[in-house]
Amino acid sequence: MKQTFSIAASLLLAATVSTATPTAHAVDSAPLPQIAVPKVYIVPMKGQMGTDVEPEEYDAIVEDIKKVKPDIIVIQLDASDEDRKQPLDLSEGRANRAERSIPKINEYRDLALKFRTELRDIPQVMWVNDAIGFSALMAFAWPEMYMGSDARIWGLQQVTMLAMGWEDPDVAAKMMAAWTAAGKGFLELGGYPLPLGDALLFPDRNLSARWEGRKVKWTNDVDGTWIIDDNPKRTPIFTAQLAEDSGLCDGTADSLDDLMFILGYREYTKIDSGEKAIDGYIKRWRKAFERCEELLQDVGDEGGGDERALAKQLKTWESILSEMERYPAVEYRLGRQYGLNKGAVKREIEQIKNQLQQIRNRERGNRTNGGNAPGGAGLGGGGNRR
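Below the sequence we write its predicted structure tokens.
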């Protein structure tokens, strides 16, 4: 997989930022409250990572939680690196399509760290409905984990697949070190053992589990009570059943009622302001993206190089740029599907402005030359009169 220098530079910069950021460490969880009817704040992380799950959008959620002061926070994770409307394909041929997710590893880690530290006095529960790809990292940032009965946690081999795709071995080594270190930071934050992280990230690592008293010990071998993964070509796939049997998760729940009952509450008050905020954001950015697709079609239909056509194209590209600057998710999706980013759109805008300027300069030149020409309507023509 051939990479351009510009992408390499951006990823190396992300890796530098990663190594400069303090390493995440386990954060103690607050105990569940001993009250009959707790207030439960739902934090949805659903859809596509990098677009629907946009780290910046959760800053307002954190502030809202501080204001509302719920008794319990439930992180509802149902996310993937791919658009959920499309079938998931983790084959090597598609690995390059996920590369734009890589720089956001640090942002997602910081998001998890923000929840775990700034809201550490409020009990937090991770409820996985599905976690495929980089979203699986988010699941491990919380020690209290429950899963839906048909949920899965898998797909982290994308990290090493992308690193191994670099032609320059030095760059590949740096990428591998940076990405896997960032990935393991999530597990450290949730207090999960690193052998588990190695198996999830590296296809050639085995994984088994054994009980030592009431504690599960994970090892990168096949000597444990449960052999989770002995396939050297893939990373383990945790179904809800396997996760519960091996002690990875604390139980399964297919509804919020089920989850709260398992936690020991027959009644609760649901706070849905976070759900409304995220649902509204998803609708807005997707509508903006659809508009950009329509605008791209308009650009293709706006042929001709005359001033009027160019002015129309300029307005169209400026509208696209406006939506990209308003919603990072729009730029992310346009990049994945059309190879467009803000830099490319800005260059297109500058090129059209130059063309328009050239046309206007020619028109001014023609008017000036025409007005002074002998026999014309200007001063030269008037000088022949008596």
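The first helix runs from residue 5 to 20.
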